[in-house]
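Retro notes
What went well: the complex prediction finally ran end to end.
Inputs used:
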Amino acid sequence: MKTSWSIRRSGWRFFTWPVLGVGLFWTLFPFYWMLTTALKPNDDMYRPEPLLVPVRVTWSHFHKVFFDSHFPEYFRNSAIVALAVTILSVVVGIFAAYAIVRLDFRGKNLIARGLIFSYLVPPVLLFIPLFELIFKIGLLNTREGLVLAYLTFTVPFTTWLLMGYFRTVPVALEEAALVDGCTRLMALFRIILPLSTPAIVVTALFSFTLSWNEFLYALTFTSNPVSQTVTVGLTSTVAEDVFFWGVMMAASFLIAIPPVVLYLLGQRWVVRGLTAGAVKG
Amino acid sequence: MANHVTARPGSPRKWQLQRVLGRDYALAYWMIAPSVLVLLGLIAFPFIRAIMLAFYSQPIGGEGRFIGLENYRTLLHDRIWWLSFKNTLIYTIFGVGFKTAVGLAFALILHQELRGRTILRALLFVPWSVPIVVDAFVWRWIYNDLNGVLNYVLYKLQLISEYVLWTSDPKIVLWAIIVVVVWQGTPFYMMNFLAGLQSIPDELYEAAEIDGASTFQSFLHVTLPGLKSVLIVVTLLSTIWTSNELQFVYILSSGGPAHMSEIFPTLAFFTSIPGRELGLGAAVALSFFPLLASLIVLGGRVLLRGAEE
């Protein structure tokens, strides 16, 4: 393993652990505060001297999230939307990426460019016209409307990522199969896809978390628990109660679990994925 | 290329088409059709529509009326637009600046043999992987003026003599939000910089050492040049993303008090959806477009170059 000998040599190393300690505290304290708030009874929370360490633990906030709120609906909506978006964008991405990387056709470079530029177009430029579009086709306040909107950021992203991975599969393998009488599609399904399974899994993890975490489109296109996702659901909760922080933090904790788990699983690829292969490991 | 493999005996017409459209056009166009549909129907068309909308007075559900540059005129005479302009600049410049600095510092520290480095990296990564809404709400609770932990601890440590209104004091609110932006975004920078550091060959450092370079000199002449491409990509992408992220402001302050923390993304949202003026909202969203477009073109080029290498 490589060492940063510049730090080792210069005696800066002495500072490593103190600085890391501060860094860890700064990074993690908010989450400590979230979790302990979720477990503290209201009496220990709303008082002049809030308790920094929970002395009494209550499950009442979590209980309220599960049994006396709209969160079960929000969770279901988020899961359905994110799953649908993931499946659609991975399938669309596989076909597009294969065509762009391996097939010879006019307009290929134009599409590759279109994909990368649309990956960089921020949702703030699109949410108004998309609102109009979704309003006109009658999909406001539906999960289908959200799925359509989320494809705008997942499709360019999955296609771009998969293009990078497909390029690394040796062409010779495929040519051999084609000589043996395989069609292009058979070659894709029997040779490229099995070799790219890890890449496809990672791409799917990304699409899922990006959709799960999305906020602006959900805020704009949905306004009731029938279609709202967890992220906007959280903002709707504020209005319901004066002492809402225990419930809020309990719900926040639950919302954060899926993306954190998925990111920890795919951590190695996360960075490379988001800058879409531009940063060399 | 193995042209003979797929070229089948066909009609002369097909040959001609293949000459013009490329060997595999028939299969390829089927395969890219869905993504082209998304690209044109859900991104390109709405994008052009947004540019057009900005020339219209278009209430939600009502008749649109062409008014030329009137929306832009309105904005240029609007104090709130100018305030948002200033805030968006401060928010983006300081957000990206601090994220770069702190991210680089942490990357340098993590780039050495440490016990439990994998776990450290995973832990330091958490704020970035959590949904931004959650991050923002946790901080809103920390910043809470009466029961917030920040006021309580600072007061106990006698660092403040009275409770601070972190998200409702006009002088403080934007900076309080920038702190959260930096806290949330630093891990992404750190990870990218760490990957960049690991790709700098050790021999370069050894050569610098032999030449008698000091630690600082080798940082200046080996580390920074080695990180150049990563630095460019990360700050470029992050500038686009940071300047267009509305969740922090929306949740921590709603742009308040009195628009003191309003930025273009929140102003565009409040104008178009609760304010029901889609045309004016589109004009707000496009306020930074010339700047943004150049960043997008630049970023796209860098990414394409990276892919072609």
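What we learned: The radius of gyration of chain B is 26 Å.
What to try next: split runs per interface for comparison.
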